[in-house]
User: Which sequence fits this backbone?
């Protein structure tokens, strides 16, 4: 006979998915003014407008490497509203003028076609050089995406130009990773095939989700296809998909995901997949669609030219999917044994749930990361394994780089969801003496349209959470001895 307490365990587990009072108060103090402003803007009368009027907004420095920068912005018709508090698109040209002095912007780059969803790439930049730039459309300077709720900066690596109403803004290119380039790996997660509404945010009441416009392709499919194409275009040799491949674990949605990912290459050779909490189902469709053939039903280790890739199933447990992630005792023991056997081998670990969630705009619940004791066990294992250099996680739908205090040689990188703003993936460029992490948005026109539309998730507050509060949350370089890794055959 069960005791009364055990009879209530399912209900208690469900309650644990909700944020605690302190988390609610902390986030509420930051979010309430912005939510009120958003609600006020939504009920304002739309003023008259002229087709030649233009506003250039949402400027972002998305990607920054040692020799290139990708800059995006949006042009709209002021005074109009698409129903989500966003101006209707104004299709026009776009250019970025830039230089090494704010008073001498003597170089320019532009797009090949008129659009409202601008993406300009600056190339042939010098490593370690400070540049100043201004993005323009029809002589109107673009203004930055505001990240004031998180004290962030969307447009540069310094505060230069912030508050100016159009720039110029500034960034300094990093030095390249040391040594010879060996291979590149695309990191992605949260494709959510089968989802129809983005931004149904648990724990935050009364936030309307955002759906696709009538007549357009389902956004999880178009974003996933655009991701695969962009990853190949950017030179990815491998792709790692870190869970929540589907919205609900159905065989149909997982099958569609398999067909899309097969466009990158062969499963188990060119790309690897792990399960997320959304992928669980009674018929175990995930493991049928993506058979592991590895050490366990959902976890594995692969040696690819000296680089060890470990995939973890971070929801190997019973539950409602909203509680903390868990590996299970068998998988945890296997993982610890892997690192003990070869602690110095260059190793990249990926799994759906993060080990820790810090500096979140929204309330942090237990369900946002791996169960605390298991997360601590993983970090302890990393501390004794100097070969581990990167832990890739999804689930939080944001770009966030965290250094693990007890294992400072490991970068813990949360990657934004593939399915919605900002969309895309993070490219790991592995060199013999280190590596770079760079976030790329999908360049497909339809993907850019959806990315812009879905920034209205959470009443327009989503960029504060998802983009990354700094350029270095989505673009970074670290030194690490990876000389034991060989370039993959035929891909050098």
Assistant:
């Amino acid at each position: 006979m069960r005791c009364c307490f055990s009879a209530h365990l399912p209900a208690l587990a469900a309650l644990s998915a909700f944020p605690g009072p302190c988390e609610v108060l902390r986030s509420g103090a930051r979010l309430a003014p912005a939510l009120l402003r958003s609600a006020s803007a939504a009920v304002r009368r739309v003023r008259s407008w002229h087709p030649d009027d233009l506003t250039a907004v949402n400027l972002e420095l998305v990607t920054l490497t040692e020799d290139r920068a990708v800059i995006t912005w949006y042009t709209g018709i002021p005074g109009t509203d698409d129903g989500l508090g966003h101006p209707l698109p104004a299709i026009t040209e776009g250019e970025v003028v830039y230089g090494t002095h704010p008073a001498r912007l003597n170089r320019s780059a532009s797009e090949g076609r008129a659009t409202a969803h601008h993406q300009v790439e600056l190339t042939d930049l010098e490593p370690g050089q400070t540049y100043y730039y201004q993005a323009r459309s029809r002589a109107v300077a673009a203004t930055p995406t505001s990240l004031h709720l998180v004290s962030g900066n969307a447009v540069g690596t310094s505060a230069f130009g912030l508050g100016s109403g159009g720039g110029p803004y500034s960034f300094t290119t990093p030095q390249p990773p040391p040594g010879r380039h060996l291979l590149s790996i695309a990191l992605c997660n949260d494709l959510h095939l089968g989802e129809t509404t983005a931004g149904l945010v648990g724990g935050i009441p009364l936030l309307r989700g955002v759906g696709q416009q009538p007549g357009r392709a389902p956004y999880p499919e178009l974003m996933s296809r655009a991701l695969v194409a962009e990853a190949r275009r950017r030179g990815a040799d491998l792709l790692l998909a870190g869970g929540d491949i589907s919205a609900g674990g159905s065989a149909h949605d997982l099958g569609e995901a398999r067909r899309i990912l097969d466009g990158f290459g062969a499963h188990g050779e060119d790309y690897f997949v792990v399960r997320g909490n959304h992928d669980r189902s009674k018929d175990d469709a995930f493991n049928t669609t993506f058979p592991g053939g590895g050490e366990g039903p959902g976890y594995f280790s692969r040696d690819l030219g000296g680089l060890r890739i470990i995939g973890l199933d971070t929801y190997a447990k019973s539950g409602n999917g909203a509680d903390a992630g868990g590996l299970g005792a068998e998988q945890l023991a296997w993982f610890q044994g892997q690192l003990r056997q070869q602690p110095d081998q260059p190793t990249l670990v990926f799994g759906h749930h993060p080990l820790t969630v810090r500096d979140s705009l929204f309330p942090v619940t237990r369900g946002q990361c791996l169960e605390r004791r298991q997360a601590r066990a993983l970090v302890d294992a990393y501390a004794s394994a100097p070969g581990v250099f990167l832990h890739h996680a999804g689930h939080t739908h944001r770009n966030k780089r965290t250094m693990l205090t007890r294992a400072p040689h490991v970068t813990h990188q949360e990657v934004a969801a593939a399915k919605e703003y900002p969309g895309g993936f993070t490219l790991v460029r592995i060199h013999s003496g280190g590596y770079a992490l760079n976030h790329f948005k999908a360049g497909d026109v339809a993907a850019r349209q959806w990315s812009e539309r879905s920034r209205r998730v959470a009443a327009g507050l989503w960029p504060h959470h998802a983009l990354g509060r700094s350029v270095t949350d989505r673009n970074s370089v670290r030194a690490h001895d990876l000389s034991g890794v060989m370039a993959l055959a035929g891909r050098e």
